[in-house]
Amino acid sequence: MNRRSFLQASTAAGGSLVSGLTVVGGGQKAIKTKISLGYDNFAVRAMGWKAPQLINYAASLKCDTLFITDFGPLEKLDDNAYLGDLAKLASDKGVKLLLGSWSICPTANRFKKDWGSAAEHLQLGVRMAKALGSPAFRVILGDRNDRLSEGGIKARIADTVAVLKANKGYCVDHGVKIAMENHAGDMHSTELVELIEEAGSDFVGANMDSGNAVWTLEDPVENLRNLGKYAITTSLRDTALWESENGVTAQWTAMGEGNTDLKAYFELYARLCPATAVNIETISGFNRELKVRDKGFWKAWPDGKPKGYDQFLALAKKGKPRKAWAAPAGVDKNKAAQDYQKGEIAKSIFFCRKNLGLGLR
Fold it and tell me: Element (H or E) spanning 192, and its range?
């Protein structure tokens, strides 16, 4: 493979491979890589910002990417001139835009008809992504309730695959890949891999969410091990886990404040998907108990404990209980939420840059 082919093959959604030469043992030369760093707009959802404000904030944090994962910040849909202007604004500030939206599974709990049928929603997003210069369009199946729906998660996966297969030509013709997320407890990483392979991994990959991994009883490192080679976009955060009365409790945190082994995580990340941008999506401050000691909990898991469950429990044993965040007394709750969310993403970006060596600038 020549250098040009290598660079083309190594560039993924929002990622950037920077080549440099370093002398290593035996006088050989190796290519060093740097990984793009940005944020998911849901991290600052309380701000209610439109796209230009989100872009300006990304630039102020010296982000390489901005992942807009819902259509809300975009004031015009399917307007190429408007979307092109946003892409130029971002480019002028050194920011690469990525786009996402919600469910394309017509039978899922989270599916909405706001953008027409599942196919119409998917096609709209693909057109928008192309106009914004985003090489991928992120979508979801649903949430943990779909595991208890008729036919279970396998039936919902089959319905999603049908939508993807029927629209493969449209996606390929527009040069946009589809990034399916492991979302809100819907799919374990191994189930998402099955979906991607069945739909076609040549045009479908993963939006890898490390925080959502714990809701499907996974250590985030094991989730990455399964999904890394399929990852074309990401929405990442740290998590604190600890043993509790009914099982395991999880609290999403700013990067570096949970008990995920981030050193191991990003060493593996650099091997599996170094050309995929790291986008941080902090959704901090609340606790969710996964009641694994309750027999009723396992109705959502008819095939038994999933792959990697033992590693998940081992991670929980290392953690200690934490209180949920609450707005300070006497402070406007909306203002407090805004300040809290901005603080969580800002310190996460700083931590990733300083302690993990992420980011191109």
Answer: helix 189-199
